[in-house]
Amino acid sequence: MRPLRLDLAGFTVFRDPTTIDFTDADFFALVGPTGSGKSTVLDAICFALYGTVPRWGDRRAIASALAPSATEARVRLAFESAGARYIATRVVRRDGRGRVTTAAAGLQLMPPGFDVSKLDSGLSTEDLGEVLAGTPAEMEQAVLDAVGLPYEQFTTCVLLPQGEFAEFLHAKPATRQQILVNLLGLHVYERVRERASTLAATAEAQLAAVDRLLADAADCSDEDLAAAAARVDELRALAAEVDAAAPKLAAARHAVESARATLAEIDAQAARLREVTPPAGLDALTEAVAAARTAARDARAQVTAAEEREEKLRGELAAAGDPATLRALLDAYAERAALADQEAAFDAAVAAAEAEQTAALTALASAREQADDARQALEAARAAYQEAQAADQAAALRAHLVPGEPCPVCTQPVASLPAVAHSSALAEAEAAGKAARAALQQAERLVAERDAAARDLDRALAAARAQRDQVAARRADLDARLAGAPSPEALRDELAAIAALGDDLAAAATAVRTAREASRQAEAEVARAEQRLHAAWRDFDAARDAVAALGPPEADRADLAAAWATLAAWAADRIADRQAARAAQVASVDAAEASARSIAEDLAARFSAAGLAPPEADHARAAAVALERARAEHERLAERRVQAERLRAQRAEHEREAQVAKALAGHLRANNFERWLLAEALDLLVDGASRILRELSGGQYELVHDRGEFFVVDHHDAGLRRGVRTLSGGETFQASLSLALALSEQLSGLSSSAASLESIVLDEGFGTLDAATLDAVAATLENLAARGDRMVGVVTHVTALAERIPVRFEVRKDARTARVERVG
Q1: Own/partner pairs, 674-681, CB within 8 angstroms, 24+ separation
Q2: Strand 72-81 vs strand 84-94: parallel, antiparallel, or unpaired?
Q3: Count of CB atoms within 10 A of residue 114's CB?
Q4: Nearest to 750 by CA among 676, 692, 696
Q5: In degrees rounded to 5, what are phi and psi of residue 814?
Q6: 164-171 LR contacts (CB < 8 Å, sep 24+)
Q7: Contact at 8 Å (CB) between 718 and 220?
Q8: Of the candidates 450, 452, 444, which has an alpha carbon nearest to the alpha carbon of residue 374?
Q9: Is residue 152's pLDDT more than 50?
Q10: In what order do the strands lie in the sheet containing 709-714?
Q11: CA distances from 494 to 7, 334, 682 (A)
Q12: Spatial separation of the C-alpha atoms in residues 788 and 758, rounded to whole Å
């Protein structure tokens, strides 16, 4: 298996889509810091093929394939194996409940020379290759057929992961032997042995079958052949005799059938004639139809009379006055009387309002005079108050006057002090003013009240006058409308007459409906009676049609009873004719049957003479069948003679094939050949690994085996031989690398049809090697890659080793994803 291209997205640390093209990378290194994702590239290759990774520890732990927080991981590997190109794909998804499952898995066989760059052209893989597997269950066998190695051996011989590099070195002999069987394709010899055993069993079964056939064919003698030929001649003569007599028998039987058919027809005609019998009640049916038709005519006349009366009353009602107009005039008379009463009432109300208004105006004038008198009294009180106030002020100043001093009012010298005024005049004037003001306020309130009352009476009077005028105007309109109209008594009489006409019209309409219903029922009765009459005519026609072939007389369609009587009389006459014809036809049938019976008995005697059971019918076919059976028996005996010779030749061939197949299966059954091949392969493998180990260890160690177990010989310790499990870590790496390189170099030369070891990828501690050993390892890898028939890959962070490798894939990782860049 040789990887060509790897596409991955969402796979562990490779969150973003990443492509690694190995197409021309025969010798490459995956380099980068520890934890950057170098080993993850190898994990993706292994996961695409087998659906698991050694580092996960559990083949069912596919959840490790998803990048953190990712819901889907996709891995696609294009690889070459034994000259064919394949594409393996796996898709892993996480559902809403957090469960991780394989959503898709498939393996496709690409056309010869398929260019992996087409995967970038937009073409889907469904358009490019043949599907070998479409489910995870189908992938296991399909990958095993394509690669040639199961998962455990693939990770031991091709993809050597960390921690399992020394698996082949430390494996048990039985496990290592099975790995070599798969690598060399030695299981083909087991299949050869199984096939040889199957062929031997088949040949023996065929031999037994031939022996049984020979036993059956051995009882065929010359006497048997002669008897069979004589029987053919005898039956050939019988067939000729039957062929000559068969037309006569057929003609006789045809005559019998014809005579019987004629007799049956005569009997059938007689039976049909006997069925021509007039039904009972024909006269009553005719009378019922006539009575129904008469009743229907009377009912239609009653309908006509009722409809005419209805139309007459409808015309009279239309000629009468309009009830609505008459009722409107009566309503107008009633309204005019009511308006007259209202008008008289409104006149009285207006007169009363006018009287109240006059009294209110008189009271208002009196109140206003009282108010005027109160104002005059208030003015007089104010004047008296002012005079008293002035006098009082002068008295107040007298206390401050000093004779000879200037007056504070006039500034003149005061000659002498004035006399003292009486102090009660001001108080009296003030009291009189208050009384006058109160009287004025009382008079003004009275004026306001009587003015408001006068205005209310004025509004009431205006409203009463307006209502009276409105009623008067409406009464005048009614007077104009009723001028020349009939009196109320005449209007009521006319309405009563119209109502009476309406009642008569309703009664007439009811009578029309009743007459129509009676007419409908009469017509229905006519239809039912005529339907019974038509049914009776149909019965008559059916009876007549049944004997139409015998020529019945014409029927009188106007009288059903007469038609039946004529037909029944004719049928009675024809029955007597058929009875006479039947007696003559019975004699004809007996004569035909006697002739046919004689011919049949003669043929039966011929069959009995030939040793055959006489057939009931078709003597010619029975003779022909017997003849063909005799011929077939003669031919079968002749073929058995020929078959016996052919079976003897076949028996000799089957016996030889069984001996050869049994011998081959016996040689391979002991597995000696397979054990010899495994021993030779292991010798070559150990020799190649020892040569590489001597180079890597500076001549100190070489590898040997004994009964499937591996040992190392230490030439620095006097050639001491010890188990490989006693080696140190660096020594174990050297021994494991030697063995892995030897597997890749030499085993392909031992088998051309086994697993294709076209690549080897090492992911193990080169950092544990010293400089000299590292240089030897690098030289060994360079030599292996230089041969050109192997892809060699290493995973390392050792700079000295990486710089010696021509193609490097540098793996870097940031906080989000890992990336791969090709260098060199």
Answers
A1: 674/181, 674/186, 674/189, 674/190, 677/184, 677/186, 677/189, 678/177, 678/180, 678/181, 678/184, 678/186, 680/750, 681/180, 681/184, 681/747, 681/750
A2: antiparallel
A3: 20
A4: 676
A5: -115, -165
A6: 164/54, 165/733, 165/736, 165/737, 165/740, 165/762, 165/763, 165/764, 166/732, 166/733, 166/735, 166/736, 168/736, 168/739, 168/740, 168/743, 169/710, 169/724, 169/732, 169/735, 169/736, 169/739, 170/724, 170/725
A7: no
A8: 444
A9: yes
A10: 701-706, 709-714, 720-723
A11: 114, 17, 144
A12: 10
- Separation between Cα atoms, residue 563 and residue 565, nearest integer Å: 5
How far apart are the C-alpha atoms of 172 and 724, rounded to whole Å?
A: 12
Q: Residue 706: what are its φ and ψ, rounded to 5°? A: -145, 115
Token pair belonging to 77: 């590997």
User: How many Cα atoms occupy the beta-carbon half-sphere of 25 within 13 Å?
Assistant: 25
Residue 140 pLDDT greater than 80, yes or no: yes
Among 1-10, 117-126, 798-807, top mean pLDDT goes to 1-10
Distances (CA, A) of 220 to 229, 643, 650: 14, 11, 19
pLDDT one-digit tens code per residue, 731-755: 777 787 787 777 766 554 544 444 5
What whole-number distance in Å separates Cα of residue 549 and Cα of residue 387?
Answer: 164
Q: Please choose, from the candidates 743, 718, 706, 712, the residue with its C-alpha nearest in 3D space to the C-alpha of residue 730.
A: 712
Q: What is the 3-state secondary structure (H, E, C) of 476-518?
A: HHHHHHHCCCCCHHHHHHHHHHHHHHHHHHHHHHHHHHHHHHH
C-beta of residue 751 within 8 angstroms of C-beta of residue 184: yes
Q: Dig out the tokens for 41 from the structure.
A: 């590239």
- Per the DSSP assignment, residues forming a β-bridge with 2 are 80
Place 153 in a pLDDT band, splitting at 50, 70 and 90. low
Whether the pLDDT of residue 186 is over 60: the answer is no
pLDDT of res. 343: 77
pLDDT at 748: 46
Rounded to 10°, the helix 187-217/672-696 angle is 170
What average pLDDT does the chain have? 79
| Alpha helical stretches, state H, 158-281 | 167-170, 173-184, 187-217, 222-274
User: What are the tens digits of pLDDT across the range 297-343?
Assistant: 888 898 899 888 888 888 887 877 777 877 787 788 888 788 888 87
Q: Cβ of 609: how many Cβ atoms within 10 Å?
A: 10
- Take residue 644 and report the two structure tokens written for it: 């016996």
Inter-CA distances, 50 with 59, 723, 725, Å? 9, 33, 30
Q: How many residues does the chain have?
A: 824
Distance CA 657, CA 200 (A): 7
* 57-85 b/e (C-beta count within 10 Å ≥ 16 → b): eeeeebebbbbeebebbbbbbbbbbeeeb
The pairing of strands 701-706 and 709-714 is antiparallel
Helix (H) or strand (E) holding 101: strand 100-109
Please report, as a single letter, which amino acid is at residue 729. G
So what's the pLDDT on residue 753? 42
489-497 long-range CB contacts below 8 Å, 24 or more apart?
491/326, 491/329, 491/330, 491/333, 492/330, 494/320, 494/321, 494/326, 495/323, 495/326, 495/327, 495/330, 497/320
Alpha-carbon gap, residue 80 to 3, rounded angstroms = 6
Whether pLDDT at 400 is above 90? no
Q: φ, ψ for residue 32 (rounded to 5)?
A: 150, 170
Determine phi and psi for 246, rounding to 5 degrees: -60, -45
User: Six-digit token pair at 627?
Assistant: 């003849």
pTM for this predicted structure: 0.42
Termini Cα distance of the chain = 24
Q: How would you label 97-112 residue by residue, b for 16+ Cβ within 10 Å and e otherwise? A: eeebebeebbbbbbee
List pLDDT tens digits, range 618-674: 777 777 787 788 788 677 767 776 776 676 777 787 778 777 777 766 666 656 666
Tokens at 456, concatenated: 């209310």
The residues facing 87 across adjacent strands are 78, 108
